[in-house]
Amino acid sequence: MSVEFIGYIATQPFSEIHPRSGETVQPEYVEKVARAHELAGFDRALVAYHSDSPDSAFVAAHAASVTTKLKFLIAHRPGFISPTVAARQFATLDVFNGGRTAVHIITGGDDQELRADGSFIGKNERYARTDEYLNVVRQEWTSEKPFDHQGKYYQFEGAHSRVKSPQQPHIPLYFGGASQAAIEVAGKHADVYALWGETYEQVRDIVKQVRGEAAKHGRTIRFSLSLRPILAETEEKAWARADSILERAKALAHACGVPRREPANEGSKRLLAAAAQGTRLDKRLWTGIAGLLGAKGNSTSLVGTAEQVAEALLDYYDLGITTFLIRGFDPLEDAIDYGRELIPLTRERVARRERERNEKVA
After folding, report:
1. Residue 15 carries which DSSP code?
2. Phi and psi (nearest 5°) for 355?
3. Strand order in the sheet with 285-286
4. Residue 219: inside a domain, yes or no?
5. Percent of the chain at pLDDT above 70?
6. Could you tell me if residue 313 is inside a domain?
7. Which of 312, 304, 326 is nearest to 242 (CA)?
8. Is the dihedral of CA 213, 215, 220, 223 positive or negative?
9. Inter-residue contact 9 to 308 (CB < 8 Å)
10. What's the confidence (pLDDT) of residue 131?
């Protein structure tokens, strides 16, 4: 199976080592980053969702207007607009951008952030709502005639969408969440299950769990892993760069008064469990930033030369990972750098691995 690379588009330049600057939405920056990802050979770019962030679908629409091949992964939180409305919005966007849309479902594990948008129900109930939400979304995308729905959270009579995605059977659904409730919903609905950059052992475990849930529904799922590669000409220089990134992140966190809260979501807990084992794990997994900032989001790295990191990505590929969501601590510059060596090297190694497997079968 071919490998997929997903980058990241923000609306202003920032990271753990760069403070936010300028307007929150900078159209020219979005255009520059989108074009850079397309030229670097990324398949898609993620546009994130937070309760205080710009609307991800509108950002993706603008990025699509200045690119021709780059696809988009639009983060979306169920429960805040009607699933029938959301389904038509994404289908409409997908027509305009020529089938370049995918939706990343993030139910959310931070009660405080969810309350900012008006959701006060508990985690398990949120996933129950997501389950029902996705049932309706998929039906709205695929049904050729009006349908009714009577559920706990949503009721519809004569729901129907005249606009259909050019992608069949529907727009791809990516899914994040590591709790048992999340895994159960993922097994039922996800086309791609996304996890953060964990150890080989952790990845092997959760892939097995999600595959087991999917099998209950007669489904197969692909898997995505999120990482922050740190590259340099030599391994020594790469680790020196990682050390520098950690020091700069410490200084920025101190200057901004960023509190280190214990995470409520299972994904972050899993990353912190890895960080508790040490800062350097497996071949070249680095947990420095995850340990410093409480594993808030995608925060673990692979450190080394492009060749070494490509080999580590191949290890994850052998565990069932076929999508890599990668972004750097210098977001624009690193995206360009990944396109020079890391992405083509990894594609080459994956193709070679597949040829070897086919030859053994033959």
Report:
1. B
2. -65, -40
3. 230-231, 301-304, 285-286, 280-281
4. yes
5. 98
6. yes
7. 304
8. positive
9. no
10. 98
Q: Compute, in degrees rounded to 10, the torsion defined by CA atoms 291, 325, 228, 10.
A: -90
Banded pLDDT at 257 (limits 50, 70, 90): confident
Cβ pair 159, 149 in contact under 8 A: yes
Q: What Cα–Cα distance (Å) separates residue 223 from each residue in 189, 197, 203?
A: 13, 12, 10
Lowest-pLDDT choice from 218-222, 266-270, 284-288: 266-270
- Report residue 284's pLDDT band, with 50, 70 and 90 as the boundaries: very high
Residue 254 has a pLDDT of 92
Is the Cβ–Cβ distance between 70 and 46 less than 8 Å? Answer: no
Buried b (16+ CB within 10 A) or exposed e, 286-321: bbbbbbbbbbbbbbbbbbbbbebbbbbbbebbeebb
Structure tokens at 249: 């992140």
**Which residue type does 301 have?**
S
Amino acid at site 56: S
Q: Are strands 44-47 and 71-76 parallel, antiparallel or unpaired?
A: parallel
pLDDT, average across residues 37-56: 97
Q: Is residue 148 within 8 Å of residue 158, measured between CB atoms?
A: yes
Strands 44-47 and 4-8: parallel
Q: Is residue 24 part of a domain?
A: yes
**Nearest-angstrom CA–CA distance, 352 and 347:** 9
How does residue 148 score in pLDDT terms, banded at 50, 70 and 90? very high
DSSP 268-286: HHHHHHHHTT-SEETTTEE
**pLDDT tens, 298-317?**
999 999 999 999 999 999 99
Helices (H), the chain: 27-40, 56-65, 83-96, 111-116, 123-142, 180-189, 200-216, 235-256, 266-275, 288-293, 306-318, 331-340, 342-361
d(CA 173, CA 130) in angstroms, rounded, equals 12
**Structural domains in the chain (count):** 1
Main-chain dihedrals φ then ψ at residue 58, nearest 5 degrees? -70, -35
- Look up the CATH number of the domain holding residue 151: 3.20.20.30
Q: Provide the pLDDT confidence category of residue 362 given band limits of 50, 70 and 90.
A: confident
Residue 339's domain comprises 4-228+304-361
Q: Is the pLDDT of residue 261 over 70?
A: no
Contact 267, 195 (CB under 8 A): yes
* 180 within some domain: yes
